[in-house]
Amino acid sequence: MFAVELDTTQNDEFKDIDNNHVWADYDGETSKIDVTLAQAGAAKPVRPLLSSTYNLSVILKDKSYIGFSATTGAISTRHCVLGWSFAMNRPAPTIDISKLPKLPRVGPKPRSKVLEITLPIATATFVLAVGLVIVLLVYRRLRYKEVKEDWEVDFGPHRFSFKDLFHATRGFRKKNLLGVGGFGKVYQGVLPKSKVEVAVKRVSHESRQGMKEFIAEVVSIGRLRHRSIVPLLGYCRRQGELLLVYDYMSNGSLNKYLYCEDAQPSLSWDRRFHIIKGVASGLFYLHEKWEKVVIHRDIKPSNILLDNEMNGRIGDFGLSRLYDHGTDPQTTHMVGTMGYLAPELVRSGKASTSTDVFAFGVLLLEVTCAQRPVKKNAQGDQHTLMDWVLEHWRNGSLMETVDPRLKDDYNIDEACLVLKLGLLCSHPFVSVRPTMRQVMQYLEGDTAIPELTSTHFSFTMQAFTQDEGFGSPNVTYPQLTSSTGTFSSLSGGR
């Protein structure tokens, strides 16, 4: 047997030498043994690593076997022959390295460079994505978070979800903004489920004191049904603000028609007079015809909304209060808009039906004159619209206060009536102001308006409100008496 030993272990029992063992070339004719060693794939070296002459015929028997031997003894190891060649009486065939199998992997598989780079990135990306999703979910929940308490269960049908209102107004974006007032912003929107157009007003209400009562009043006002009142559909409460939801009035507020910059009036006199009577009818309903007395507390042109037929409707009940018939309203902090506040409201903070009448009187003068309630004269001094109209009345030139854009295209009797009624309603003394029932009678012509005399208007509003003695309970004032008389000096109109 001629064996080639392939192992990496020294076996002392076989007198194994401590060296590398390789294959050998043996030439029987010359008895020459050549040992060569080279890396796999390299050409066979011309010069052998070891060359020796030894006659093997005296050692080998006539029958011999050619093969491989490998032993490790007590040590566990693996040997692998990828390829071998053998020939007798001629050189061994060349081994084609490219066709040899791959050396079996020993130990753990080496990690891919690509994996080493992408795995940490993928892991970090996944963690960030999960964190981002959590943040978005928390943000979404906080964005739509509402304030709900047990007592609000009774008002459930009148409560809107903030999520619905947010989507209805497209996130309260500027494009949906209808107007900005002293008490909040109003946005146009379309409810996602019902597709109903609504106007949403965001009102700041930081104090929780009286919140239950306030919501109860809002819901109660939501039951108001009158052709001259914008329906209040419901509310939403979120953190420090209230959102009031109304029917959407397609033609906007009266304010933009009175103070448009066009030379031609956008509202004819007939339309103005129709709006005035509609607002008066709505206030009469609030004060006397409903189950409770409702005080609006913020009557002004921007809160008079026009529907698709240009009918005037009272809107924005965010500041309103209600109480039982036959009882006195409670004193509260003063709210409203400067120029429309009755003197007694400024002094005492107590709103009443008479303070609504005062604001309605200012509204009458505004609609007729198209002038702001507080304005500057030619000298730059500030004075009230009532003083300006009153001055013209004293000078016999009352009709000169009518909106000049109307020219002569108005009813002189109706304009005269409205101006006179405006002065009565905005009188600083409560006892002189008519009720809304009386106002309706005057406007419909059922009752003649009381005659005005210089005695009743021997003051200016500005001086009156600055008088430190205003509001004394001992102050008396002559009552107006009914008369069929009209202003002595009238001009213009038709």
TrEMBL record:
InterPro entries: ConA-like_dom_sf, Kinase-like_dom_sf, L-type_Lectin-RKs, Legume_lectin_dom, Prot_kinase_dom, Protein_kinase_ATP_BS, Ser/Thr_kinase_AS
Official protein name in the record: Protein kinase domain-containing protein
Keywords of the record: ATP-binding, Kinase, Lectin, Membrane, Nucleotide-binding, Serine/threonine-protein kinase, Signal, Transferase, Transmembrane, Transmembrane helix
A Pfam family per the record: Pkinase
Cellular compartment(s): Membrane
Keyword ATP-binding applies: yes
Keyword GTP-binding: no
The Protein kinase domain, residue ranges: 172-430
Residues where ATP binds: K201
Coiled coil: none
Molecular function (Gene Ontology), one example: ATP binding
Transmembrane feature ranges: 117-139
Membrane topology: Single-pass type I membrane protein
Family membership noted in the UniProt record: In the N-terminal section; belongs to the leguminous lectin family. Belongs to the protein kinase superfamily.
One GO cellular component term noted in the UniProt record for this chain: membrane
Taxonomic superkingdom: Eukaryota
